Amino acid sequence: MKILMLAPEPFFQPRGTPISVYFRLRALSDLGHEVDLVTYHLGEDKLFPGLKIYRTPKLFFIRKINIGPSLAKLPLDFLLFCRAAGRLIRKRYDLVFSHEEGAFLGVVLSKLWKEPHLYDMHSSLPQQLENFNFSRSRILKAVFNRMERFILKNSRSIIVICRDLQNQVERGGFGDKAVLIENFLDFPSPRYSEQAVGEKRRALAPRGEKIVLYAGNFQHYQGIPLLLEAAAKVKEPAVFVLLGGTGVELEEMRRKAAELGIASRVVFVEKVPPSEVPLFISAADVLVSPRLSGTNTPLKIYSFLKSGKPFVATNLWTHTQVLTPEISLLAEPDPESLAKGISFGLTQEEAQRRAAAARALAEKKYVYPEYLKKITMVLDIAAGTPSGKD
């Protein structure tokens, strides 16, 4: 197929949706499809066979796009629409494939050029307004609800990345269009030697303490203050490594650790390339996700399950869509419960058994051939193949 893809993102940057876009492009390339990607002027080129990237014109006053809804996206999305329309004028496509709010633009273009549309639904658009504290306006939320329903109704097929979104699409009456494709793929990384892992452990925990690792951004919904409060209650000798913070959020959490009197037990590491994250995971003894809000499954879950390390997560739907007590340590979202879960992961043989079960599950279920199969399935539905979901 010849596919026009709209990604209203800084592509590529190592964060949420751009990571998902990367793996969609990789899969489409491996399946032999041709993709013209229209995206923002920001980001690093990542090329695959059959892929061409077309960027919006540079706007000198926009040098960064924050995660979540942003007013800066308005002029960029207008330019994205114009760039995509220009591609449709010049070339005939078999499919328009759009991500996030770009799907509204994609549906309009697909109607004008009478092409099928595929919606890659990474999150609920109205829910983003609350998750990122962008707005609590009922009017704006109603507009986003209408926009989302318009997209779902007018898309030939829909990718959903978690069970919560699948349930939402089914409640809306569009379940026959949807295919669940979880974001479980990992970036290629070096096979780190025992020596490299040992050196990293000594650098992070020079006194031989065990290592508890958080990896991800420091947005409020991630629950970093909760993790620090729990760390203050953990009695075992352990170092808490918080990987991925930047800017103001990082400085706020440094101050929080100092206020709790645990600055010497917390190591902050700024964002590293995705290929280096597995080294930190290999060096850790326990992995943790203290997320407090949202309903999407965190991308890190799948890497953590594959690691074979004890994994402690808050007992919320954002995690329990995937996690069960058989493969993880689920803790209530309060400091005392999270601290007990971490201590259990650090000391109990049962935690190791669950970690081994998690790895076995991941090696069976979260594999690339299954990902390619589901991509083919959703393309078949978009192309009007009745057997697409069989």
Low-confidence stretches: none
* Molecular shape: globular
Residue share in β-strands: 15-25%
Number of domains: 2
CATH topology of the largest domain: Rossmann fold
Radius of gyration: 21 Å
Strands ordered across the widest β-sheet: 3-2-1-4-5-6-7
Q: Residue-averaged pLDDT, rounded?
A: 93
CATH superfamily of the largest domain: Glycogen Phosphorylase B
The second-level CATH architecture of the largest domain is 3-Layer(aba) Sandwich
* Quaternary organisation of the protein chains: single chain
Q: What is the C-level CATH assignment of the largest domain?
A: Alpha Beta
Structural class: alpha/beta
Report the strand count: 13
Keywords:
Rossmann fold; alpha/beta; 390 residues; 13 strands; 7-stranded parallel sheet; globular; 45% helix; 16% strand; 15 helices; 6-stranded parallel sheet
